[in-house]
Amino acid sequence: MTDKIKTLEALLAADLSEAEWTKSTFSGGSPNDCLEVTRVKGLGYVLRHSVLKDRIIPLTDSEYDAYCRGVQDNQPGLIPGE
Hints:
alpha+beta, 4 strands, 28% helix, 23% strand, DUF397, DUF397 domain-containing protein
């Protein structure tokens, strides 16, 4: 098993009951229309939807950083169909 898989599995198994979730101010203030993110120290990040809170996506630090940089730079093709 690779270190990356171990990290992703650890993120999925992390206790997130005390996690501090953040969301973009561009969400419009609606509690049901948001992508939320939390940082799990030493492992990476976890994403979730504000409605489907039990379904999470784990990301390593480098994956999260690369995606955020792509969004910030308006990377062509980052968003399918655009």
